[in-house]
Amino acid sequence: MKPMMIAFSLLAAGFLQGAQAANSSGGAENATGAADTAAAEATGSRGYRTLRLGTVQGGSSFALALSPNHKAAGYVTLNIAGGYRPALFMPGFAPRVIHTDGPGQGTGVNGLGEVVGWFQQGTLTQAFRWKFDHITTLPSLGGGSSYAAAINHFSEIVGWSEVAPGVRHAAYWRGGTVVDLGAWGGVAAQATAINRRGDIVGWRELDVAGERVRQGVRQLKGQRPQLLRIPAGFDNLVPSAINDNGDIAGHMYPAGQELFASVGFLLSGNFYKRLTAEPGFPTFGLALNNLKEVAGYKFEGTADPRARARVWRNSGNTSVALDRLPSAVNTGWWALGDAHGINDSGVIVGVGQFNTAGGGRNIEAYMLVPR
Fold first, then answer.
1. What is the span of the domain harbouring residue 275?
2. CATH number of the domain where residue 350 is located
3. pTM of the entire structure?
4. HEC profile for 295-335?
């Protein structure tokens, strides 16, 4: 996104009322409700099997999203123009390369095996949907580049599209048509996730006192968008996932300090639960299931990889390190990095480093399957 200094009203017409509703209760942080205490036993509490999702031509692989039935989307590097292509991963099978016109990534996948993502087309990025070896480019809002971020069970897709060069609006696709969700009262916006009900989350960008900030937005199906309250001490809030109950996961950070001061969060109703690791380490929530289990990573600046896989169970109250699981280390993995997907079976996918025969390491997609 190119920097833009554009004057704006605090909230666009029709947006303010929803934003006030989202903030009206105030809400306490780190509170848990009675429903949390009755949650099912945490998935993966008896350990995991660690699976390699495979590579192509000895290259690298990256798992970025997960379906309810254990399909993963991401990308692989291989000997091809541009160096990498989107891919579908299924345990026990070789990665299925999605042959786009240029380099790209799969960023979302549903249980029907539909993959969405983007690929490079000249100087622009193009959103796509892929199913059964057939790829469909998604219509844009007329400004150039587009990006599909997520897809639900009903083939509803969200992401962003430019309405003018460098000006991104949140976008929704269904049945070959695109809907402009707007900039949500900001200078730009991106939708990041959609649940089974069609509820959408994302964020808008604003210029505040010369600083570009990101503010979380929730748009329930058929309703106006609502601003998400940002807890005290933070200026930015970036939602990454929404489950079918409306719970939201992501990360928040003070202005200009995303990498080294982020704190992952789980938002249930109006209550924020901070997702913590060891003191002093930033955390990021990337994925969320219907049991309120969040997958993501702890950022460790001096480690390799710096993103260390993590899962937060028990509505975010229990933080579990996944980066050096015995089942992974004992089967050749050096470390498991950022965890990008978790489903209701507790299966987790992400990107790690696997030890090679020559003493080096290769970046590969992994899948953790609860025992």
1. 16-370
2. 2.120.10.30
3. 0.89
4. EEEEECCCCCCCEEEEEEECCCCEEEECCCCHHHHCCCEEE
Q: How many domains does the chain have?
A: 1
pLDDT of residue 26: 39
Sign of the Cα torsion 114, 308, 297, 293 reads positive
Share of the chain above pLDDT 90, in %: 85
Residue 247 has a pLDDT of 98
pLDDT for res 43 = 76
User: Hey, what are 233's tokens?
Assistant: 């001490």
Position 344 in a domain? yes
Report residue 180 as tokens: 């402009």
User: Does residue 8 form part of some domain?
Assistant: no
Q: Is pLDDT above 60 for 37?
A: no
42 band by pLDDT with thresholds 50, 70 and 90: low
Task: Give domain status of residue 222, yes or no.
Answer: yes
**Residue range 296-330, pLDDT digits in tens:** 999 999 999 999 999 999 999 999 999 999 999 99
Q: What is the pLDDT of residues 169-208, one digit of tens each?
A: 999 999 989 999 999 999 999 999 999 999 999 999 999 9
Residue pair 85/57 in contact by the 8 Å Cβ criterion: no
Q: Looking at the domain assignment, is residue 3 inside a domain?
A: no
